[in-house]
Write a structure and sequence with these properties.
The structure is a single chain. The chain contains no helices and 23 strands. It is globular, with a radius of gyration of 18 Å. By secondary structure, the chain is an all-beta fold.
Amino acid sequence: MPPRALRAGQRAELHVIDVVTGEDRLVHESSSLLFEAPNWSPDGRWLVVNGGGRLFRLPADGGELEEVPLGDVPEINNDHVLSPDGATVYVSAEDGHLYAVPFEGGGAPRRVSNDRGAFRHYLHGISPDGATLAYIGLVQHADGTATTNVWTIPAAGGPDVQLTDDEFPDDGAEFSPDGRWVLFNSERARTEPGHAQLFRMRTDGSSVEQLTFDERVNWFPHVSPDGSRLAYISFPRGTLGHPADLDVVLRLLEPYDADGAPGTVRDLVVLFGGQGTINVPSWASDSRRLAYVAYPMS
């Protein structure tokens, strides 16, 4: 599948919002390159995005995109995470595999994922100790349907572990900052097709708990590094999947208590976006700033 492109009259805007004060800062914009899915480097210096099948970084205070060399890795999609030490960026490539790439250059990329036949890996999270990756495994069936489940794999390579095994669409698997939970979105409690809500489970797949309970379609849970807030993207009721080019809401659950029920929902920002806005972990290490991408039309 070719990388997404901007529509005529559309631009991509990279924003950083302070979730305490509401200050929203435009960091970078483009009317030529559709970039997606911002990560922060752990030291706070860089924002990392993908676009056109490639990976880029730019200073967190703003500036121009600088390509991160991927070596012989195939074109990538918008699923990428950085290791806790900032030395490695893990990416999902269009060949269906996961790769580890030196973030500062100076080394060859390494394939992490195993050959599993008609199976594709979509990366979403890394454990706080950097030892384990959480990804969505997609199996394409002969009738054109697909099944998605939550899996983990050692970041150094090794055997895959399946955490969910059901017919409901699962996505957005990400570790909590304390490493005790894997958060994800799923349609397992749906009241109509597409009705995804947020869940969490223990890292062995047990003790599944539902976190959101509303009529909207909620995707991509991201817990702040201090564990106090949960950010996610909320699509309109009736949305199927996580498409692009819709009016969506970035929301917070706060306080988020890892040992009890989450707090109340607060709308953070309304924007035109969706796919690519906040697919991957996008909190700064200070747990106050959140990066996201909007795709407004002129």
